[in-house]
Design brief:
The chain is mostly helical and 260 residues long. It is 76% helix and 0% strand. The chain has 15 helices and no strands. Helix 3 packs antiparallel against helix 4 and helix 6 packs parallel to helix 8.
Length: 260
């Protein structure tokens, strides 16, 4: 309401259009978010922020080429801003263009060594490649930089410790993740589907199989049509010496969603 009131007072002011776009994205009203960002760009073509935000929405919608173009427009307008480099890395990671993703994340870190997200995203690629030491180092760095919103990093470290057979350390990470989850949900630090999936794997890692399965079902119900379903966590845990029970149920849910 505040952004709409500001627009009514001064329709040519770009800032509230950008803010309105952020609100619409949080509500998953993506086409309205795109329209709001485009209004902001029309009013202030040299502002990098709405271009970056537009890139995030296009990525949400898996409109990857448009996302790449939007992030590149943001970088052109503000080459010292780390955020569009991180966004560009996310698109390349989704497309499995991992070397380009790594280069983008590393550029983001060079521009802002205190920016936590690229470390988490780099860690995800290292984990996918089973470069366990590098993944662990990056997740820990991400937690160090911004511990209050490090839900995903704690979940992923817990999964790594299961993979390594270290149940005690895994439990510590999953308990910390669940302690952070409520705040992460309130702040919508990820998509609803992503937040619920993190919760599901934390519950699974703590042996709460029934709750994990219910939560994973909720996560899959929240995903966008055509949304990415990643089976790499299942593959990682299948390589573990003694994974918690219930992995087969989790796998079947993911595979059913993948085929639907």
């Amino acid at each position: 309401a505040a952004y709409q009131q500001a627009i009514e007072r001064d329709p040519q002011f770009a800032y509230p259009w950008n803010g309105l776009g952020l609100v619409y994205r949080d509500l998953q009203r993506y086409e309205e978010a795109i329209a709001a960002y485009q209004q902001a760009i029309e009013r202030d073509p040299q502002d990098a922020h709405p271009w970056n935000n537009l890139g995030n929405v296009y990525r949400d919608l898996q409109r990857y080429e448009e996302a790449i173009a939007a992030f590149q427009q943001a970088i052109e307008r503000d080459p010292q801003d780390a955020y569009p480099w991180n966004g560009l890395g996310n698109v390349y990671r989704d497309l499995q263009r991992y070397e380009e993703a790594i280069a983008a994340y590393q550029q983001g870190i060079r521009l802002d060594a205190r920016f936590a997200y690229p470390y988490n995203n780099l860690a995800d690629i290292h984990l996918r490649r089973r470069e366990i030491n590098q993944a662990t180092e990056c997740y820990n760095q991400r937690i160090l930089l911004s511990p209050d919103d490090a839900l995903n990093a704690h979940v992923q470290l817990g999964l790594i410790y299961i993979y390594q057979g270290n149940k005690q350390k895994a439990v510590e990470q999953f308990e910390t993740a669940l302690a952070l989850w409520g705040q992460a949900w309130e702040r919508q630090l990820q998509t609803r589907a992503g937040l619920l999936e993190n919760k599901a794997w934390a519950l699974y890692g703590l042996g709460e199989t029934s709750k994990a399965v219910v939560t994973l079902k909720e996560a899959l119900a929240q995903r966008l049509p055509g949304g990415v379903i990643d089976l790499d966590t299942v593959a990682l845990l299948n390589e573990a010496p003694d994974p918690p029970p219930g992995l087969e149920e989790m796998r079947l849910l993911l595979e059913k969603a993948l085929s639907s």
